[in-house]
Amino acid sequence: MTGAALLGRLGWQSLAFVRAWQDPSLNTLIAAGAAALVVIGAVAVVALITLRGQWRRLWREWFTSLDHKKIGIMYVALSFVMLARALAEAVLMRLQQATAINAPGVVDAEHFAQLFSTHGTIMIFFMAMPFLTGLINYVLPLQIGARDVSFPLLNAISLWLTAAAAGLMMASLVVGRFSTGGWSGYPPFTETGFSPGVGPDYWIWAVTLGSIGSTLTGLNFATTIYKKRCTGMTVMRMPLFVWTSLCTSILMIFSMPALTVATALLALDRYLGFHFFTNALGGNMMNYANLFWLFGHPEVYVLILPAFGIYSEVVSTFSTKELYGYASLAIATIAIAVLSFTVWVHHFFTMGQSANINAVFGIATMAIGVPTGVKIYNWIWTMFRGEVRFTVPLLYALAFMMTFVLGGLTGIILAFPPLDYLVHNTLFLVAHFHNMLIPGLLYGLLAGYHYWFPKAFGFRLDERWGRVSFACWVVGFYLAFMPLYVLGAAGMARRSSEVLEPAFRPWLLVAGAGALVLAAALAALFVQLWVSVRHRRANVVPAGDPWDGRALEWSVSAPPPEYNFAVLPHVAGRDPFHDAKRKGTAYAEPVRYAPIEMPRNSAVGPILGALGGWAAFALVWQIWWLAAATVIGMIATVIARSFVRDVERTIPAETVARIERDWHETLARSAPTTRDFETTAINRGLAQVLA
Amino acid sequence: MNRAARSLTTLVALAPLGGCAALKLGVMNAAGPVAQAQWDLYTTVAIVLIFVGGPVLVLVPIIAWHYRRANTESAFRPDWNFAWPLELLIWIPPTAIVVGLGIVLWQSAHRLDPYRAIALSRSPVIVQAVALDWKWLFIYPDAHIATINRLPVPAGHPVRIELTSGTVMQSLLVPQLAGQVYAMAGMRTQLNFAASRPGVYRGENTQYNGEGFARQKFDVVALPPADYQRWVRRMQHQARPFDAAAYAALFERATIPAPVMYSAVPDGLFGRIVDRSRLPAAQAQR
Ligand code: HEM
Ligand SMILES: [Cu+2]
């Protein structure tokens, strides 16, 4: 066999290290350094696990687990790793623009283009999506009183496909180069005629794997919500987070396929010489723009709605009060979800279509502002006449409301086609969408992380470091992004690796400083985790209800048992656990325990993920034998799995009884805490209830 | 102490100045009727938006602070969860504002449609712009001249630019004069504007198109009409004739260090470039 048949397009030149060796410059050294970080990081993790002899345990208890809680935790862990990388890239981009003002800067133009492409792609597909999917995974079954999602194996498969796609993103740092076409991958720039390398192929396959995973996740969550709610939980009694998860899932189901089709057609163009989006032979990139944004705009709400749900939970819990206007929050959520499919053209007002079309889509865009604004007022009226406790999650909620509204205002500006003509594709747009996504997504997910962490791990996160990190996220955001509005209004194009205008310097310097503060925010988050794990004994909340919570997830121990609920709950209202505590019926021990059936572990998830990842890698490098082998392997795995009949495992009643009795003993031993001490070591997770 | 204070004051005073220098390059410093109308629209919308965002910005901190747990004076009604008057207050006024803004939007989208010719008494100048890697070609079909990376126009005359791309999609923006429109291969789009006073205005491509992107800038030079006519005549006589080599050079992926001028530009060059990308690569070389 010749080398090309064996290794496709792979060669020594593909390695970042070789390129840095042959042509040492700051630019190639930064690339090699990043590649080295990936390699060293991977080797260190493998070595650590091997030295500690943890492979077997990890495989048995985590990788092959179908437990929605473990899958959720793995999703969130993945998203933190990817957040670290994407944020590092953001800081590098800010550094570049602050220094490359009529000067060379630190990286070259092509490298800079890879940075914004990977940053955007990772933040959306491999930071935000896994993070929110992880939180929904963890919380959703607990909130609806179920033991798992509807399709536990599918859940694991989604996780491992996403992880494989994230792995592919990491591989692109070491072997080859990534796309320079941005997170939206617009052709014809990403066609072979203009981007002959492997970059766009990395992008196509990473995004395709990720979008398939997300479609499956959406189906899984929606089915779970339709089918697995406990007795008494009518639709209008679902916690708000379940509502937003439902709408997000529906949006995933309907929008993700548009992306899969867009990337698939682009792949046909690139691999088989089709002409869907090329300049020649009847191709037309406008079709791509429509397909991409038919996915892209609903995607924005896929990202933001779960955070809205989190804020609803957080604001209500930490205001010690029922949510104001439950029905209007639910209606607003549905309205947003429906309207989100009617506005995609606002991403290309400048494509030359008629004023009528632009005006219709502009007005539809503004219309979404109404239900969104309603939600914000609902949270304000929830605090009204409450008792607001300024814990870290609530602080994020407040910062979100104050900051998100600014992004909403600039969004209305962008909805006016004549104003969009001026600031489209400039840093104004970059400022706008970060102004929506950082408060509306990242703050929300971080609020959820702080809120539910004690539930998942049985101990609270350190409050002080949480505040430090919060302060840095907020200050850093304003410093890093407010200057971009000015620069955009002054006409500075986005994605610029160089700046020819010295007047932009002061603003770029402030934005650069802001990026450093944001990096400090992430560092503080990691320090917080470290400190909290070290001091976990002082902060344990085994009773399971550290915040005087309202929904069902707080009615079980922390961490919850594998089966979630020894006896499936019945609910009769919107805040079932809150009401039960007030009525004195919470924590009732059942007369007897029954055996519980749970899904058996399965290696299918990790196997499909590994094969899928290698298939994607093989397609990127055109190693056809490997692509064929891995795809056949995937099909074979699925067929083999369908013959497995023994997929359930029974937890005997005695085991359930033992676990539950232990917990009830803990409950009996715990002293109830008033809200004044909830962030101190006194809090053991049993809330004092004032009737 | 005194000196430190003084230098701090200077710094604080200078920071906005530096900022103003940046904003002078944008629509705030509009130099033509289109950009001026856009800026007016911008200020109108911004004023309305104060009333949209203001209540949230005021209410969130006040309510959160007033109803803080430590404040034992404030009312506490943990079961209160709805009130029709509030509900109407949060649905109806925002809807009304959106309806109002929607009317403004509809009208402005038509009034400031980039395809709409500028109503000025003087005769329009027609320019055909071709987006290239990583430069702009401007063809003046009536004068049979062309320029790369410089767009002289007569001040006070309407300018109609017809756009296409000889390569990937790009977007032409001159912030002080008008908004942007995409240039796409095989298609024609249009942008109308005018410069009301002589001056030099920065123009650029805002759609990423490869390594030379950040340098793909050009100047719009608005000249007094008489000077403009002189410039056209001078170009017709002195500039390099546009030949086959010049045509081939257009499609090289490169930035160019300084603007270039051509004379003797053949009829139909723009149409030829539009058609070029409809053909398979082999025939397109013609
Ligand atoms: C946390 C701090 C963050 C910083 C400092 C940051 C910074 C940046 C910078 C400098 C750019 C390039 C701007 C340009 O084109 O000139 C960018 C682009 C982008 N960012 Fe972020 N970002 C952050 C967070 C996020 C988050 C949370 C998301 C989404 C969830 C996100 C999504 C994007 C996207 C989609 C792009 C566009 C990429 C493209 O041009 O294709 N960013 N960001
Ligand atoms: Cu959108």
Write a structural description.
The complex is a heterodimer of chains A (about 700) and B (about 290). Chain A has 21 helices and two strands. In chain A, about 65% of the residues lie in helices and about 0% in strands. In chain A, helix 7 (about 150-175) packs antiparallel against helix 8 (about 200-225). The model of chain A has no long low-confidence stretch (mean pLDDT about 95). Chain A is globular and about 75 Å long. By secondary structure, chain A is an all-alpha fold. Chain A folds into three domains: about 55-540, Cytochrome C Oxidase, Chain A, CATH 1.20.210; about 540-600 and about 645-690, no CATH class; about 610-645. In chain A, strands 1-2 form a two-stranded antiparallel ribbon. Residues about 280-285 of chain B have low confidence and may be disordered. In chain B, the strands form two sheets. A seven-stranded mixed sheet of chain B has the order 8-5-1-2-3-12-11. Chain B has seven helices and twelve strands. The termini of chain B are far apart. Chain B is of the alpha+beta class and about 290 residues long. Chain B has two domains: about 5-10 and about 20-75 and about 80-110, no CATH class; about 125-285, Cupredoxins -  blue copper proteins (Immunoglobulin-like), CATH 2.60.40. At the A-B interface, helix 6, helix 12, helix 13, helix 14 and helix 16 of A face helix 1, helix 2, helix 3, strand 7 and strand 9 of B. Protoporphyrin IX containing FE (HEM) binds near residues 93 and 183 of chain A. Copper (II) ion binds near residues 300 and 346 of chain A.
Give the tags.
heterodimer; A: 691 residues; mainly alpha; Cytochrome C Oxidase, Chain A; 21 helices; B: 286 residues; alpha+beta; Immunoglobulin-like; 2 domains; 7-stranded mixed beta sheet; 5-stranded mixed beta sheet; 7 helices; 41% helix; elongated; disordered C terminus; binds protoporphyrin IX containing FE; binds copper (II) ion
